[in-house]
């Protein structure tokens, strides 16, 4: 019996404390609910602002109530999932410094994170993207992005040498755009640049790929890097005959640590041309309607580049400085260090009709 006395006393003491606590909670409860509602509304307003800007074709950046910028939206991302390549282009600015490739499921996880952050277009590049598992790794990512993530645009940049028709048969329906790198229609010039591969003819292979793209309903695009060896070439006739949806023409770009400097695997200085020479090339091809020119100024900071570790690469200082991986810190945190110039992205025509469903091509 003597043990019941302190227990009863303790219960009475607890009741004394509970009464004022209950009173405090009754007054704080509505306040917590108001704060939660305000937070939800602020998040909704942020999403609405970003969506309105995307629909208006503006950058995915909006200003918050405090005047600060909201996070950059990764509308269009270039994922260089491998640095390995079977060509040795002398001006390459994304060289084989590692052989690392993320496990497929990890890559899918990162792509899902990008989609949730606002990505609308993914471009797979390298290195040579068809080199990994003979294109099977790439094909699975393409299918995942189109079928499961339902991205409006899925594209690839390739040198084309390893693409087989069976890949189109298996994965072509999930691909919007295939861009093939072709810097010259003179095979000897291609060999000088580093695109030669024994008995295979780069230009003949380009023609075959063009045919497959039409047959399997994939929009066909050509990328050309204008350099010392092709700057005087006239490509009007060949480009017109191939009739790509876009002919992207880049000025040869120097990137420290990639194609210039002590740690570089390439020495691109001998390929460099002046701004005036680049403009002369553009003027010679001004009547080609699909021409999309990109000078060094337009190109350097207007791409969101993701490397093999899913790190954004900042090129603002003439080299590629990596962020932390989005798999470790998330997209919003990593993209702060990307150096991405959204205004230049729009100025160079980075936002265009990039879904084959909207291109209305004559297949």
Automatic annotation (TrEMBL):
Classification via Gene3D superfamilies: Aldolase class I
Entry annotated with the keyword Manganese: no
Keyword S-adenosyl-L-methionine among record annotations: yes
Gene Ontology biological-process annotations: defense response to virus; innate immune response; negative regulation of protein secretion; negative regulation of viral genome replication; positive regulation of immune response
Record-linked CDD domains: Radical_SAM
Membrane topology of the entry: Peripheral membrane protein
Chain spans, region Disordered: 51-73
UniProt name for this protein: S-adenosylmethionine-dependent nucleotide dehydratase RSAD2
Originating organism: Bison bison bison (North American plains bison)
